Amino acid sequence: MHSEVSGVLFPKIGKPGQLSPKARLLIITGWLFPSRFNTEPPFDRHDWIVHRPETGEEVRYIIDYYSTPPLPDGSSVFSLDVWPALDSSVGIQTRVNGWKEIWSNPATRENEA
Is the CB of residue 80 less than 8 Å from the CB of residue 64? Predict the structure, then answer.
């Protein structure tokens, strides 16, 4: 989403078995709309801290790992859902800007579906 991203990654914090708020929301949405959404929880979760040297800010990103069907050749595939956590004003601003970018560009919305 950022054209020029620079920063320093701090070691990840593994949280397998702990659902992120977004994962919980997606599971509930899957119960309500089973033809459109999946109820399969992520198989893993990691939190990463990104230090942005230009501002001195630290932003926590949540990464949920989801299983997907294997490729025709049998290769394993998984999907990542990566968003800034909503525990800081910078995380909230980054996420809102990402939503604006997705919803203001029809081509992006089609790729997200």
Answer: yes
